[in-house]
Amino acid sequence: MATELQRLRQRIAALETEKLELHKQREELARVKAEISLADLARSFATAATAGEAAAPDRAVRSLAATVQGHFTVGPDGVGIRFQPPELGDRTAGLGRASFELAKLPPPAAAAAPSNLTAVLQEKQALYSDERWRRKAEGARVVSEVVRVLGVTPTAGELVAAAASIAAHERRMALSFRGGEGQPYRTATRSLVWLVNAVVTKPEASASDLLALSATLAATTAVARELLR
Questions:
Q1: What's the pLDDT band for 105 if we cut at 50, 70, 90?
Q2: pLDDT digit string (tens) for 153-164?
Q3: Exposure b/e, 96-114, CB count within 10 A at least 16 = b
Q4: Which of 193, 200, 197, 184 is nearest to 216 (CA)?
Q5: Strands 96-103 and 63-75
Q6: 186 phi/psi in degrees, rounded to 5
Q7: Who has greater pLDDT, 197 or 3?
Q8: Among 69, 88, 122, 185, which is most exposed with the fewest C-beta within 10 angstroms?
């Protein structure tokens, strides 16, 4: 009886040691595993909402709220979150919870409202489809790109890629206009190319990047329209 009791105690001690070792491994994994910044998570929600708006000119996302659950850490760069693995989804003990809301602020009274990217692209399509446009080959390529991107529900990356393609075509058209009449068009397309080059180097476009692309694409359309007159 005493021997059995001794073996049982030894087994319990071994299990406790194993439990402590697993706990240490878990803590080490939590330290080394990449975490998502809570601020970056909120920014990704904002980008997704902006891309969704861009695909629906008759819709507006005025606010966005979310509640997330996971393991939270606080570091020099702010609050990080590590989500629970799917296989442990039913184990919620020890998980923290955070809620945030993103609200769209209206522009100042004297400022123009941000342009919807789909509406901007539709205006560009109408311009370069006009029979009076003199650079028909490049104009047709812009129209084709616009039709392609408007035929799907684009992601932020797809919108940036479409803007880059359009910028290249518009820049070639602008450079083909010689003299003073084409100067505003050349200036506007140069600004668009610079912006696109800056955005495409980023791992992911932000909501402000998409809004800036929308405004700059609208500007090239506006100055190109003057060349029809």
A1: low
A2: 788 888 899 999
A3: eeeeeebebeeeeeeeeeb
A4: 193
A5: antiparallel
A6: -65, -40
A7: 197
A8: 88
**Model pTM greater than 0.90?**
no
Q: Give the bridge partners for 73, in sequence order.
A: 80
In degrees, to the nearest 5, what angle opens at C-alpha 203 toward C-alphas 198 and 205? 60
Describe the crossing of helices 156-176 and 117-129 by its angle, rounded to 10 degrees: 30
Residue 34 pLDDT grade (very low, low, confident, very high; cuts 50, 70, 90): very low
- The string of pLDDT tens digits covering residues 164-210 is 999 999 999 999 988 888 899 999 999 999 999 999 998 888 878 88
28 residue type, one letter: E
Q: What is the DSSP string of the chain?
A: -HHHHHHHHHHHHHHHHHHHHHHHHHHHHHHHS--EEHHHHHHHHHHHHHHHHHT-TT----EEEEEEEEEEEEETTEEEEEPPPGGGTT--TT-EEEEEEEEPPPPPTTSPPPPPHHHHHHHHHHHHHSTT-S-HHHHHHHHHHHHHHHTS---HHHHHHHHHHHHHHHHHHHHH--SGGGHHHHHHHHHHHHHHHHHHTSSS--HHHHHHHHHHHHHHHHHHHHTT-
Amino acid at 142: V
